[in-house]
Amino acid sequence: MDGQIFLRLRHRIKTGNDQLIYLEDIAQITGDEFAVQKLSKMPIYHVSKKDRHIAVLDIMHVVKTIKKTWPDIDIQTVGGAEAIVEIDTGKRQLSPVLFVFVWLLLFVGAALAIMNFHEDVSMRLVHIRLYEMITGKTVEHPYLLQIPYSFGLGFGMILFFNHVFKKRLNEEPSPLEVEMFKYQLDLDHYVALKENKETMKDIHDR
Amino acid sequence: MIGKWLFVALVGLGGGLTVGAGFVAFLTVLGIIPRLMQLTKTQRFIQGYEAAVITGAVVGGWATLSEVHLHLSKWLALPIGLLAGIFVGMLAAALTEVLNVLPILTKRIGMDGKIVLLLMAIVLGKVFGSLFHWLIYI
């Protein structure tokens, strides 16, 4: 009895520890009705302690497992070649102390960086000069320029990251979200190739 | 004498050309203008924004090189300071260091959900640092 199915591996799945992963968990399946029904509940992989946090399932492994029980089936694969299995081993909770430390680190660092920047580009002289241009008066501390400038600084950063007007202005992702997505994709790509022993082979000095 | 002037003019023109091109390239790389257009949905005014940047740069360049005094109200300094601050804030936010460091940092210390709080630390740090610099440090 032969049939045809189409497989598309999911990019990333989350499981708990010591769990059995079925074909329908790891891939989208379509094709001949009877084949889909028979294969959906086929166990593909058993998550064990030695996998630790992450495991990678290669499409070849999946095809091999299916072919073992059903050699005649025609499997068409679509999309990516690996699925990343993220194993949730009880989320490590961040201590508030550490969070406060990181927060203060960023706060002080950002403050120092902006002061260095101002000194570096002689911002004070530029402000004095600008104030002189507008009013014709030379003052030592053009506060009327500098205090709005300081608040504008924060406002400009928030504007760039778009966290205030998110709901109101548009649904497009902010640059930070795009950057986080790209970083996650890079990590996934690394894991998919590095954790998967089948993708690399040393035939040196055979 | 005329040859000398021509040479000086050529040097000046060449210098201005390079700096102008560099300035525009810098703004383009940081992507502030696209970001502003995306926020305000005014992509169709792109040429107007180009003109704004160019005239701004030319006026700023001319104003710093000449001794111009407008003798206007001192309260005009307030909106100008605010606008200057917003622009520099966007520059600071757009610098790729911030964009690259934050995802890695939040991932490393396992608090992906709290990225807004960390962002606020940086934003408030900038505001505080700037105020401290103008009001106390100098």
Describe the sheet with the most strands of chain B: none
Largest sheet of chain A: 3 strands, mixed
The dominant shape of chain B is extended
Give the termini distance of chain B in whole angstroms: 47 Å
The radius of gyration of chain A is 28 Å
Strand pairing plus helix content of chain A: what structural class?
alpha/beta
| DSSP E strands of chain B, number | 0
Order of helices and strands of chain A: EEEHEHEEHEEHHHHH
Uncertain parts of chain A: none
Multimerization state: heterodimer
Calculate the terminal CA-CA distance of chain A, rounded to whole Å.
Answer: 42 Å
Q: Helix- and strand-based class of chain B?
A: mainly alpha
Q: What's the structural blueprint in terms of helices and strands?
A:
The complex is a heterodimer of chains A (206) and B (138).
Chain A: E1 4-9, E2 12-16, E3 20-22, H1 23-26, E4 27-31, H2 33-40, E5 43-46, E6 54-58, H3 59-69, E7 74-78, E8 82-88, H4 96-120, H5 123-135, H6 143-161, H7 166-169, H8 175-194
Parallel strand pairs in A: 1-7, 2-8
Antiparallel strand pairs in A: 1-4, 3-5, 6-8
Chain B: H1 2-30, H2 32-40, H3 46-65, H4 77-94, H5 96-108, H6 115-137
Describe the structure.
- The complex is a heterodimer of chains A (206) and B (138).
- Chain A is an alpha/beta fold and 206 residues long.
- Chain A has two domains: 4-88, eubacterium ventriosum atcc fold (Sandwich); 96-194, no CATH class.
- Chain A has eight helices and eight strands, in the order βββαβαββαββααααα.
- Chain A has helices spanning 23-26, 33-40, 59-69, 96-120, 123-135, 143-161, 166-169, 175-194, and strands spanning 4-9, 12-16, 20-22, 27-31, 43-46, 54-58, 74-78, 82-88.
- In chain A, the strands form three sheets. A three-stranded mixed beta sheet of chain A has the order 4-1-7. In chain A, strands 2-8-6 form a three-stranded mixed beta sheet.
- The radius of gyration of chain A is 28 Å and the shape is elongated.
- Chain B is extended and about 70 Å long.
- Helices cover 81% and strands 0% of the residues of chain B.
- The longest helix of chain B is centred in the N-terminal third of the chain and has 29 residues, at 2-30.
- By secondary structure, chain B is mainly α.
- The model of chain B has no long low-confidence stretch (mean pLDDT 87).
- The N and C termini of chain B lie far apart (47 Å).
- At the A-B interface, α4, α5, α6 and α8 of A face α2, α4, α5 and α6 of B.
